[in-house]
Design goal:
The protein is of the alpha/beta class and 262 residues long. It is built from 13 helices and four strands. β2, α11 and β3 form a beta-alpha-beta unit. α4 packs antiparallel against α5 and α5 runs antiparallel to α6.
Length: 262
């Protein structure tokens, strides 16, 4: 089928990063088959991948008008609308994709990001949990059940890192809440953050993540009652704008370095 051929060829060119070759070929396909939605969808996808959402949008809209409004197209249309800051329209596209395919995890995930960008935290955080299902983010061995937002009084909680360094720093704003609510908090973090986190959260136990898969520095801690990925903390602690506390900073710089730079 032309549809499968175009999708497969486009995927191969994108994998090889031969974007200009893909665009040139798809231009020839569109010239010969201007009313076939697949050529429009594939060109839109290449443009999306090379971060030209304004150009990709026109091809996706054309494909949809030609009857190519499947769940995958609607999800991709939502992504480029989101990239262009048109969040309401993006959510409408994700909703339409999910209506066609209720278990479409990519559309659910991207919709969660759009909700978060709108500060609709109550609707955004639950599907943000889909990130942990990615094969690119294998989960560490369990030392305790996952925290479900329940009471932490007297309980020992392990918080472990995920995603990138910036995400660890951002989500660390929830750590003071966990430290205050729990009996004791054990924090795993990037080795680059170990000293900073120990200084910033002195009442917690802080360990640098081990590079070897399957091993955990926090194994030295006994009696872990619960554990949570650091990116999962806001689901229970930041469900509305009112739950974002006012503070004067949650990370503490080294006083000696402050004096030096001052």
């Amino acid at each position: 089928k032309l549809q499968d051929l175009l999708k497969n060829l486009t995927s191969v060119w994108i994998e090889l990063e031969h974007y200009e070759a893909a665009l040139a070929f798809l231009d020839s396909v569109i010239l010969g088959e201007p009313d076939h939605p697949e050529g429009q969808k594939c060109k839109g996808f290449v443009l999306q991948k090379i971060h030209r959402p304004d150009q990709a949008l026109g091809y996706y809209q054309r494909a949809r008008a030609l009857g190519g409004g499947d769940a995958e197209l609607l999800n991709n249309l939502g992504i480029v609308l989101q990239d262009l800051g048109r969040l309401g329209e993006a959510i409408e596209c994700y909703d339409a994709a999910i209506a066609l395919k209720p278990d479409f995890q990519l559309a659910l995930w991207h919709r969660s990001l759009a909700y978060l960008l709108q500060h609709d935290f109550a609707r955004g955080w639950p599907d943000y949990e889909l990130r942990v299902l990615s094969i690119d983010r294998p989960q560490p061995p369990r030392l305790g059940p996952q925290w479900d937002g329940g009471a932490l009084t007297g309980r020992k909680v392990l918080v472990y890192p995920e995603q990138g360094l910036g995400d660890e720093i951002m989500f660390a704003s929830c750590l003071p809440d966990i430290i205050a609510a729990s009996g004791h908090c054990v924090i795993e973090c990037s080795p680059k953050l170990e000293t900073l986190f120990r200084r910033s959260f002195p009442s917690a136990s802080v360990y640098a993540s081990a590079p070897a898969p399957g091993s955990r520095p926090a194994d030295r801690e006994s009696g872990i009652d619960l554990q949570s990925a650091i990116g999962s903390l806001p689901r229970y602690l930041r469900r509305s704008r009112a739950e974002f506390p006012r503070h004067d900073g949650y990370l503490r710089a080294d006083p000696e370095r402050v004096r030096l730079w001052h």
